[in-house]
Amino acid sequence: MYDLRVLRDNLDAIKSQLGPRGSDVAWDDLRALLEKRSSLTVTVDTLRHELKKGSDNVARLKREKQPADAVMAGMKAVGDRIKDAGERLRATEERIAEITLRIPNVPHASVPVGTDAASNLEVRRVGSAPAFGFAPKAHWDIGEALGILDFGRAAKIAGARFAVLIGLGARLERALINFMLDLHTTRHGYQEVLPPFMVNRAAMTGTGQLPKFEEDLFKLRDDDYFLIPTAEVPVTNLLREEIVPNDRVPIRYTAYTPCFRREAGSYGKDTRGLIRQHQFNKVELVAFSRPEDSYQELERLTGHAEAVLQELALPYRVVTLCTGDMGFSAAKTYDIEVWLPSQSGFREISSCSNCEAFQARRASIRYRRKDGKTDFMHTLNGSGLAVGRTLIAILENYQQADGSVTIPHALRPYMGGVERIVKS
RNA sequence: GGAGGGGUGGCUGAGCGGCCGAAAGCGCUGGUCUUGAAAACCAGAGUCGGGGUAACUCGACCGUGGGUUCGAAUCCCACCCCCUCCGCCA
Q1: For residue A124, which of A306, A296, A285 has the smallest C-alpha distance?
Q2: Which nucleotide is closest to A68, CA to C1'?
Q3: Largest pairwise CA distance in chain A
Q4: pLDDT attached to residue A1
Q5: Residue A368 CA to B45 C1' — how many Å?
Q6: pLDDT digits over A22-63, tens only?
Q7: pTM (predicted TM-score)
Q8: What is the mean pLDDT of chain A?
């Protein structure tokens, strides 16, 4: 979403910067609507001015016991014209919002151009794939054999794309959540937040899930609430319609929440295992920064997500998403991909984005600059990390020939000292 | 779910339908005074949209949205939120 004046004056530039990302935007309609809005605004403001002066006149005449009927009749007519023009202005602004709320963010200049994941750019690789003296198994085989993962019963009580964690499996998930939160709060300087797992329509619009992606969300039937698809939504919206004092910036929050996604349109993908679930746990990192610092903040935040994998000694790589693979609100995104032996490949475990002022404009998230003026902050978010996928990576990378799984050292204090999961 | 009370500027809190963008106090910023600080005194200070290079100027904003009226913070309606009591509940 854009400042309407900036949009009106730079429509062509923005259109070309968006390239294919803006292909389904009604640019010509928008141009006409913006011009209509400008002229209607002038009309309404002028009429209001006239009405105000006229009404003051009526007050004066009445005080002086003079007849005011003629002026009142004239102002009645002006009032009707205001009502009429105001209604058209309101309708115009509504249509502008319908269009602009569906325009994605403009990619940063450093983002590679491309239409799909093939154009993503690998930035670095950390750690090396473990060597197995046997054929590594997939996490669902490992987990079900150990009795810590149950998809059948999950399907019975809920349906497809749900899982039940049992015993040390559940313990491992909980250990990961606590480990990640502790790392980010004690060593990386984030403040822990535990937000609602449902939010209203305004919050979803603020971060960009609505209006365009409503079909991806779980929505309550009797209330206008949505289950959050990521903690980014409640946590970023914490500062919606606020002006933050200068000395409080930057602000960094971390939050554990479950995330709920309908996964509409991904019917054939990742049907086995924990990779793609309707409900999964995630520890999120959210930062609000000064515009001039946000790209430094993105590197920082991405580093904090990587630190989790480094502590767990899991091999991974970082890629810069190309323009066609980025999310709606992002100006630049790094994906962190963890090594999964069963797939002999890397799989997304974190996505770290700088949304620049895109969400801040939608949600009116501002700060007080040193010079006293208000300005939009830049908002950033990243998974730190997706907990379920981290559990997958541990099961697969730490699996042993006998089917057991060793626990990474950093996690053992969180596992009550358990060093290995064996079949019970 | 039922009954009642209330939402005004950073905060507290006034506000007869017109002279109210809004008293007063606190807090804040600048100045005078002081070796420095405090106190006292003086001055300033909201957000958004439009126009202008600028000084400046016009409009909107008193929870949100409608309505009545020449004119609404003030009257009417709906909704949202907060508080108190009752019921229910972890």
Answers
A1: A306
A2: B70
A3: 104
A4: 56
A5: 14
A6: 888 999 999 999 999 999 999 999 999 999 999 999 988 988
A7: 0.93
A8: 93
Tell me what ipTM this predicted complex has: 0.86
Residue A101 identity (one-letter amino acid): L
Q: Which nucleotide is nearest to A48 (CA to C1')?
A: B59
CA–CA separation, A33 vs A8, rounded Å? 10
Paired residues of A346 in beta bridges:
A339
For residue range A357-379, list pLDDT tens digits in order: 999 999 989 888 887 788 899 99
Across the range A319-328, mean pLDDT stands at 96
Distance measured from the CA of protein residue A381 to the C1' of nucleotide B60, in angstroms: 35
Q: In sequence order, what are the residues at sequence separation of 6 or more whose Cβ sits closer than 8 angstroms to the Cβ of residue A167?
A: A147, A148, A424
Amino acid at A118: A
Active site residues of A: 261, 276, 348, 351, 389
Residues of chain A with pLDDT > 70: what percent? 100
d(CA A421, CA A424): 9
- Between CA A41 and C1' B51 the distance (Å) reads 11
Can you read off the two tokens belonging to residue A9?
């004056």
Give the per-residue SS3 of chain A.
CCCHHHHHHCHHHHHHHHHHHHCCCCHHHHHHHHHHHHHHHHHHHHHHHHHHHHHHHHHHHHHCCCCCHHHHHHHHHHHHHHHHHHHHHHHHHHHHHHHHCCCCCCCCCCCCCCCCHHHCEEEEEECCCCCCCCCCCCHHHHHHHHCCEEHHHHHHHCCCCCCEECCHHHHHHHHHHHHHHHHHHHHCCCEEECCCCEEEHHHHHHHCCCCCCHHHCCECCCCCEEECCCCHHHHHHHHCCEEECHHHCCEEEEEEEEEECCCCCCCCCCCCCCCCCCEEEEEEEEEEECHHHHHHHHHHHHHHHHHHHHHCCCCEEEEECCCCCCCCCCCEEEEEEEEEHHHCEEEEEEEEEECCCHHHHHHCEEEECCCCCEEECEEEEEEEEEHHHHHHHHHHHCECCCCCEECCHHHHHHHCCCCEECCC
pLDDT tens digit sequence for A253-282: 999 999 999 998 777 788 899 999 999 999
